Structures are given as C-alpha cells and as structure tokens.
UniProtKB/TrEMBL annotation:
It catalyses: (R)-malate + A = oxaloacetate + AH2; (R)-lactate + 2 Fe(III)-[cytochrome c] = 2 Fe(II)-[cytochrome c] + pyruvate + 2 H(+). This is D-2-hydroxyglutarate dehydrogenase, mitochondrial. It is found in: Mitochondrion. Gene3D superfamilies: 3.30.465.10, 3.30.70.2190, 3.30.70.2740, Uridine Diphospho-n-acetylenolpyruvylglucosamine Reductase, domain 2 (3.30.43.10), Vanillyl-alcohol Oxidase, Chain A, domain 4 (1.10.45.10). Its EC number is 1.1.99.39. Pfam families: FAD-oxidase_C, FAD_binding_4.
Length: 512
C-alpha cells in the first residue's frame, strides 16, 4: 500500500474523537495536524553551510535528487513511501543539535532514520519531513573489557559492533536478522528484541545510558557507564522504544556479556505445536543456564524458504513444525553432554520426530539461515502483511490457524496467481511468547487487509496479548494502539510528547 492509498483523517483540536478500537478501518490514518512548515531553498542553504561536506546533504529541493532519495523514502517492506526532499547526514552530536534546534525554531518536521530496516513504517516520512540519518555517526567511543561496557555512536551498524566485540571476547546482547544494516540508535529506539532476548534480556535492562538531542536542540548527556544508579526517575527508559518521537539518540552505552566459548545449535522437526511447547519446557529443564535461543518455524515457512532460497532442508521428510535451539556456554564438553541428554530425552519420549545437531561453525550458520532467512524469502512475491505479537504461549499458534481459516473462507489464498495471498506463515521467538504472523501476498490488497484488520488485533486483545511485541508501532499500528494500551496510558504518552516536543516536529504523524 502506498501512502497515497491511505485515507487520511486530520485531527484538529475541534474534531470529534475517534475510538480506534471501534470506528477505524485500517486504511484510515489518524493524523493530528502539527502545523509544521514547508521546506525552502533558504533552509537547505543553512543546512549546507552547517554541515559543510557535499555528502552530508542530499538536496532534492533545489535540484532533482529523486534517485538518491529513493532508498530513504521507501521502507524495507516496500510498503510505505515518503516524499522527503532533504536528507541530512550529520557527523557529530553537535551537528544534530544545531539541525534540530533550527528545525524547531522554523517549525520544520524531522524523521530520525538509522538503517531503515524497521517494519512498521516509523523511519519513513509521511509527507515531506526532513530525514536526519545517523549513518555517518559510526564511531565506537569506548569499551571497557573489565566491565563489558560499550559506548558507541548511534549510527554504528549492529553487526560491525558485534564483530568489534568478538575481537575482545564479548558479544552484543542483541542479535537480529537485519544486523548487517540496522543501527544501534534504531535498535534502542525500537527496543528491538531479536534472537537472544531469552538469554540476555531486553534493551530496557542492558542499555545503561543514552545521549539524546531533544526537540529544542538540547543535548541530554546521560551516557552513564554504571550498572546501578538509583537516583530518581530512570528517564533514559523513555527513549528506549520511543521510535524517535521525543528526540534523536546520538550515543548509547550498553552492557555487553562475555562471548560464549561454546555454541551449539540443534534443528528439530515436530508433529504439533503442543509438542513444540513440550520441547520448550524440557529445554528449559535440561539446558537451563546455557539455553540462549528457542525459535519456532512452522512447516510452511520452511517450505517457502526452500522454494525461494533453493537449498536442501536440514532434515529428511516434512514436519508440521520446526524448532531451532541454541546453547551458549563456557565449557564445550559440559554443553555437549547436556544437549545430547536433552535430545535423547525428547526423541525417546516422542516429543520430537527428528533432529540434527550442527557439527561446526558452518553448520551453525547454515541451520540459523533457515530461521533468519524467513523474512527475506517471504518478501519474494510482492508484499507481506506482518504482525509481530505477544500471545500467552498455549495459544500462540492458534492465531495462525484462525487467520489461515479466515483467508481461505474468503477465497483469497492459494497457488493460483490471480489470488492475492501466497500463504499464512507463523514463526518467531517462542522462548519469549513472541509470534511473527506473516501473510506473504502477490500484491498489497484492500480485500486481504479488510479480512486481517481489525480481526488480528481483536483476537489478540481477547487474549490480553500485545499488538506489538518488538517492532513498535510506527505508522502501521497507529490506529490500533488502543487494542493494547488504555486511554489513560495513551493520554500520559501524549502528555510526555507535548512536554518534550511542543511544536510536534519530531517524527510527527506516527503512533503518538
Ligand atoms: C530481516 C529483518 C529481521 C528483523 N528481525 C527483528 C527481530 O528479530 N527483532 C526486532 O525487534 N526487530 C527486527 N527487525 C526490525 C528492525 O530491524 C529493528 O526494528 C531495528 O531495531 C531497526 O533499526 P534501524 O536502525 O534499521 O532503524 P530504522 O528502521 O531506521 O528506524 C526505526 C525507528 O526508530 C527511529 N530511529 C532510528 N534511529 C533513531 C535514532 N538515532 N534516534 C531516535 N529515533 C531513531 C525511526 O524514526 C523509526 O521510528 C527485523 C527487520 C528485518 C528487515
């Protein structure tokens, strides 16, 4: 769906209030008019003087720069398209501060952008907001091998930082499929969860401090390198998961664990979701402190990866469900013994139907690719409707079955090229009760969307789940926040937004 397809409801102080859980079909977007101004060539001139270097400004105001702007205006899913005419690529926190202050003084709207791998349209302008990219702010500021505390610029790429830490026997406490492109600032701003949250916990716990430029241009330096600091409100938490709505993160300090010396990966085939739950319960019992990931993939997700990536599956025969288990520890012999005992137990008790254990690093990577490769493979046909949700574990997969049933009954799903939906796929971080319900389609289609929304959100609300486990809300879930947050919580969020961003310049029109 292009942004032009969305019906826009502009909320002014006098408009009647819509109840997002009742009155809003998904394609209506509630936008509060912020009163921000249009960009002129005088503004662009200011930024050019400020940032000096040619490569720091992509100027589509005074000339046609559409080819250069394309990558910034379009999201990873190719679902959202913005119309920015100006991308600014500052090199320092001071430059970010001057940009933001000027924008605030001149009522110019800004969208912070990191690696642009977000999956909810948060990093894409809705109209022609200025994009402030962190791509050139990519220095590691310090790393203390004794405490494991890293301080780095927000624009550092996750994988680059992890490789830096690997050379110092440490690991970044977050790992995800987009690690080759996403930035630390984007990770913190989306409170990304990823593949090893089960082991290392959420960024709300690991981030020790942030450096942020708030909408009036002030630099808030809270780059604490302390694990303990009980001195009043823990305000850095406001920026973790804020999706760029109250400031631009320019630096992050984060606690990084020791890199495990022994990593094992097993890939299992199972006959039901019930058995996957048993396998998880037993994994916690047998592997406890060395369990670092427990991922679920349904049969169709693996069939589609096989079709698109054209590679040989790890197991002979087909299974309705697959799980990937990773252990990370400090003693290979000890971990091998534990994992072997676990595998013996689940096989002999008929919990799993088949399984394979990686024998070396190449096989570890290869087994992981069957899980990490899913998002990219599903993108192969044209588009994907993505729902990243938290559901109590016993009912986690039921949502996939119910959605498949619904789309089948509506006659929208099948191999016939004229039908929009390729399949309904479920996978995710089972160890965190986090399901990725994905609907790969041949094209984004209004009829499909009407079947999916608000159905999916109502289903989740009935089970007290969350409509966003880790990807955030961005613009995609703006109309649906009411399914997971009370009116009071929404009002408190709006109060915070108004307090720090009274002019509404910072990532406007998104979820808040
Ligand atoms: C293949 C694939 C796999 C993924 N797997 C996972 C996963 O397992 N878990 C998970 O949580 N996510 C996952 N994601 C989603 C995405 O990668 C994460 O949300 C990531 O953290 C976004 O980082 P980014 O730098 O690309 O941010 P962007 O996409 O550039 O931005 C995301 C949001 O953060 C804001 N933002 C960016 N930088 C800053 C900053 N410096 N200051 C303030 N606001 C900022 C933007 O305005 C936007 O609202 C996946 C994405 C892909 C494509």
């Amino acid at each position: 769906m292009d942004i032009e397809d969305i019906q826009i409801y502009v909320e002014t102080p006098d408009s009647p209030r819509l109840d997002p859980t009742k009155q809003m079909p998904s394609w209506i977007l509630l936008i509060t008019f912020m009163g921000t101004r249009k960009l002129s060539s005088n503004h662009v001139q200011y930024f050019k003087q400020l940032l000096g270097s040619e490569s720091a400004v992509i100027d589509g105001v005074s000339k046609d720069a559409s080819a250069d702007l394309e990558a910034f205006n379009c999201d990873w899913l190719r679902k959202y398209r913005g119309h920015t005419k100006l991308v600014l690529r500052p090199k320092s926190t001071e430059e970010v501060s001057k940009i933001v202050k000027y924008c605030n003084d001149n009522m110019l709207a800004v969208v912070p952008q990191g690696g642009n791998t977000g999956l909810v349209g948060g990093s894409i302008p809705v109209f022609d907001e200025i994009i402030v990219s962190t791509a050139r702010m990519n220095s590691i500021r310090s790393f203390d091998e004794m405490s494991g505390i890293l301080v780095a610029d927000a624009g550092c790429i996750l994988e680059v930082v992890d490789q830096y830490l690997a050379g110092r026997s440490h690991i970044f406490p977050l790992d995800l499929g987009a690690k080759g492109s996403c930035h630390l600032g984007g990770n913190v701003s989306t409170n990304a969860g990823g593949l090893r949250l089960l082991r290392y916990g959420s960024l709300h716990g690991n981030v020790l401090g942030v450096e942020v430029v708030v909408p009036d241009g002030t630099i808030v330096d809270e780059l604490s390198t302390l694990r303990k600091n009980n001195t009043g409100y823990d305000l850095k938490q406001l920026f973790i998961g804020a999706e760029g709505t109250i400031g631009i993160i320019t630096g992050v300090s984060i606690l990084c664990p020791q890199r495990p010396q022994a990593v094992n990966v097993a890939y299992l085939g199972l006959e039901s979701f019930g058995k996957a739950q048993l396998a998880f319960r037993e994994a916690k019992r047998h592997l406890s402190e060395i369990l670092s990931a427990f991922e679920l993939m349904d049969g169709i997700s693996q069939e589609l990866v096989e079709r698109v990536a054209k590679k040989k599956p790890p197991l002979e025969g087909k299974h309705p469900f697959y799980c990937l288990i990773e252990t990370s520890g400090s003693n290979k012999e000890h971990d091998d013994e534990k994992l072997e005992k676990y595998l013996e137990f689940v096989l002999s008790n008929d919990i799993i139907s088949d399984g394979v254990l990686a024998q070396d690093e190449t096989q570890v990577q290869s087994l992981w690719s069957w899980r990490e490769g899913i998002p990219e493979c599903l993108n192969h046909w044209g588009g994907v409707y993505k729902y990243d949700v938290s559901i109590p574990l016993p009912e986690l997969y039921q949502l996939v079955d119910d959605t498949r049933e619904r789309l089948s009954s509506a006659g929208l799903i099948g191999d016939d090229e004229s039908l929009p939906v390729v399949g309904v796929v479920g996978y995710g971080h089972m160890g965190d009760s986090n399901l990725h319900l994905n609907v790969p389609t041949r094209r984004f289609d209004r009829d499909v969307e009407k079947e999916l929304e608000p159905f999916v959100y109502e289903w989740i609300q009935k089970r007290n789940g969350s409509i966003s486990a880790e990807h955030g809300l961005g613009i995609a879930k703006k109309p649906f926040i009411g399914y997971s947050r009370s009116r009071k919580m929404l009002d408190m969020m709006k109060d915070i937004k108004k307090l720090y961003d009274p002019n509404g310049i910072m990532n406007p029109y998104k979820y808040i």
